C-alpha cells in the first residue's frame, strides 16, 4: 500500500485537468531539492565547505567564509555533464537513454580589504563577493517500452476518469465546443471514449434512458514513452563577510534565483492486433516553467584554535514568482470497419503563481593538519514538507495541494564529507555525500549519493582545479492512474557524471 501511495503522488506529474494542473507536489520538490554546486575545488570535496571559507562557493552556502579571504579573487568554472538513465516497465523490460550538456556551475569575483598586521583594530578584514552558482541541472531523458493488458491501458484510464468526474455526453460536447481542458475531453474528441444511452429497464425499449461511459475496445497493447527535460536553476549571490580578530567570521548575503524548466513527453499506445478497429494513439504534452526568487542567508565561522573551524549558516525560504505555459494534444488512428485519423488539442495554458521553498540550515566542522591539508564535514537540514504554493490573487486554490505536500514529504538530512591533501603546489581531493529521502512513506529508495574526486595546482597569483562528480539516484513514474492501482510503473536508475574545471586569479 505504501508503494501505491507513492505512485499516486507521482501521477500528478501527468495531470492535465484545469489551468493550475501543472502546479503540484512534484514541482515543489523539484525546485526545493538542490545539488551542491560551486567551484571544482569544492565539488571535488562533495560540497563539504560550511566551515572552510576562502572559496567563491562560500557565497551560496556560508557567506561568513568571505571573512577568511586575504586577497581578492576572480574565478570561472565551466563543466560538462553526461546523464544516463536505465528504465524498467513493471520490473521486466529495460531501456537506456542519455544526454550531455556543457554548463557553467560557478563564476564570481571577490574584493577583499585587509588591514596591515601593525593595525591593532579588532575587525581585521572584510570582503564583498558576487557569484553565480548552478543549484540544479534539469537535463535528463528517459524512455521505456513494453506490453500492458488492455484493462491497464491509457484508454481504460480515460474512461475511469470520465466516470469518476461524472461526465455526460452534454458536458463533453460542451467542452469540445468551448475548448478542451481535460484529458477525458481529449479522449472524447479523438473517439477513444464515448457515451452510450441505455434503457433503465433492459426489456422495455420505451423506458427512460441512462448514460454510460464506454472505452474503445483494444487488443494487447504495446506502450512506449519518452520523457525529456532541460533547463537549470541558478542563483546570483551578493555577499559580505568580515573577520573579527581572525577568530570569528560573520557574513550575510542576498540570493537572486532564476529557473527555467522544460519538459516534453510523447506517449504512444499501439494495438498489437491489426484486426481491431483501434490501431494507435499518440499523446504529446509539453510545459515550461520560468521564474525568479529571492532569499537571505547569514552565517558564522569560529576558529577556536588554528586546527579547527566550526561553521553554521541559515538560509531563509526562497520566495519564487513562477509562470507555467503548457500544451497537450492527442492523435488516434483507427482501421478495421471504421478507418480514420483524428486529432485534438487542449486549450493552451498560461498561469502565474508563487512558490515558497523550505528554509535550509547547515552546520559543519573542519580539521586542519597544518599545511598538509584538512578534512571537512557538513550536515544540512531541509523540511521538504514546508514548501508552499500561493496564488497571485490571494485565493486558497492551492490549499489542497499544500496539504498534499505536507502529507507527502518530510524533513531530511544531507551529509557531506571531503578532504584535501596538499603537497607543495599540488592538491588532491575526494568526497562523498548522501542526500536523504524526502518522502514520508515509501518502500523505494529515494536517497541521492555522490562520489567525488579532484586535483589542483595552487600558485601565488593563480590556481587551476579539476573535479569529477558521480551522482546516482532512483525515481518512480506512472504515466496515468487506474482505480485498481494496476497502472504501469516505470522505475529509473539515474546516473550523472560531471567534469569541472576552475581557473582563478588572485589580485
Automatic annotation (TrEMBL):
Keywords: Signal. It comes from the Bacteria. SUPFAM superfamilies: Porins. Residues 1-22 form the signal peptide. This is Uncharacterized protein. It comes from Adhaeribacter arboris. The lineage of its organism: Bacteria, Pseudomonadati, Bacteroidota, Cytophagia, Cytophagales.
Amino acid at each position: 500500500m505504501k508503494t501505491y501511495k507513492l505512485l499516486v503522488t507521482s501521477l500528478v506529474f501527468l495531470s492535465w485537468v484545469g489551468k493550475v494542473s501543472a502546479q503540484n507536489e512534484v514541482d515543489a520538490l523539484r525546485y526545493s531539492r538542490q545539488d551542491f554546486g560551486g567551484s571544482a575545488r569544492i565539488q571535488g570535496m562533495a560540497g563539504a565547505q560550511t566551515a572552510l571559507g576562502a572559496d567563491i562557493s562560500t557565497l551560496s552556502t556560508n557567506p561568513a567564509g568571505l571573512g577568511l579571504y586575504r586577497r581578492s579573487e576572480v574565478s570561472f568554472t565551466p563543466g560538462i555533464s553526461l546523464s544516463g538513465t536505465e528504465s524498467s516497465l513493471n520490473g521486466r523490460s529495460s531501456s537506456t537513454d542519455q544526454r550531455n550538456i556543457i554548463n557553467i556551475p560557478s563564476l564570481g569575483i571577490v574584493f577583499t580589504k585587509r588591514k596591515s598586521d601593525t593595525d591593532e583594530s579588532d575587525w581585521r578584514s572584510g570582503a564583498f563577493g558576487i557569484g553565480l552558482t548552478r543549484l540544479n541541472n534539469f537535463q535528463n531523458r528517459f524512455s521505456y517500452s513494453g506490453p500492458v493488458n488492455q484493462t491497464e491501458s491509457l484508454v481504460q484510464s480515460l474512461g475511469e476518469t470520465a466516470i469518476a468526474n461524472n461526465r455526460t455526453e452534454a458536458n463533453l460536447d460542451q467542452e469540445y465546443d468551448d475548448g478542451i481542458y481535460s484529458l477525458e475531453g481529449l479522449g472524447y474528441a479523438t473517439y477513444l471514449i464515448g457515451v452510450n444511452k441505455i434503457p433503465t429497464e433492459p426489456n422495455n425499449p420505451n423506458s427512460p434512458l441512462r448514460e454510460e461511459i464506454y472505452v474503445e475496445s483494444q487488443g494487447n497493447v504495446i506502450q512506449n514513452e519518452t520523457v525529456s527535460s532541460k533547463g537549470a536553476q541558478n542563483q546570483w549571490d551578493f555577499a559580505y563577510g568580515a573577520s573579527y580578530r581572525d577568530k570569528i567570521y560573520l557574513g550575510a548575503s542576498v540570493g537572486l534565483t532564476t529557473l527555467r524548466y522544460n519538459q516534453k513527453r510523447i506517449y504512444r499506445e499501439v494495438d498489437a492486433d491489426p484486426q481491431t478497429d483501434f490501431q494507435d494513439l499518440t499523446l504529446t504534452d509539453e510545459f515550461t516553467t520560468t521564474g525568479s526568487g529571492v532569499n537571505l542567508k547569514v552565517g558564522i565561522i569560529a576558529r577556536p584554535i588554528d586546527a579547527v573551524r566550526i561553521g553554521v549558516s541559515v538560509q531563509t525560504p526562497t520566495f519564487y514568482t513562477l509562470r507555467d505555459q503548457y500544451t497537450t494534444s492527442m492523435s488516434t488512428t483507427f482501421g478495421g470497419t471504421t478507418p480514420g485519423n483524428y486529432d485534438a488539442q487542449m486549450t493552451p495554458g498560461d498561469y502565474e503563481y508563487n512558490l515558497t521553498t523550505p528554509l535550509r540550515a547547515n552546520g559543519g566542522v573542519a580539521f586542519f593538519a597544518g599545511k598538509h591539508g584538512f578534512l571537512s564535514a557538513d550536515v544540512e537540514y531541509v523540511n521538504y514538507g514546508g514548501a508552499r504554493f500561493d496564488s497571485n490573487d490571494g485565493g486558497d486554490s492551492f490549499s489542497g495541494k499544500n496539504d498534499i505536500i505536507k502529507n507527502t514529504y518530510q524533513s531530511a538530512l544531507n551529509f557531506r564529507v571531503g578532504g584535501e591533501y596538499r603537497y607543495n603546489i599540488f592538491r588532491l581531493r575526494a568526497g562523498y555525500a548522501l542526500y536523504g529521502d524526502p518522502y514520508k512513506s515509501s518502500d523505494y529508495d529515494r536517497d541521492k549519493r555522490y562520489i567525488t574526486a579532484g586535483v589542483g595546482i595552487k600558485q601565488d597569483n593563480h590556481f587551476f582545479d579539476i573535479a569529477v562528480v558521480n551522482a546516482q539516484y532512483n525515481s518512480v513514474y506512472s504515466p496515468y492512474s487506474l482505480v485498481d492501482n494496476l497502472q504501469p510503473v516505470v522505475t529509473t536508475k539515474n546516473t550523472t557524471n560531471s567534469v569541472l574545471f576552475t581557473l582563478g586569479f588572485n589580485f
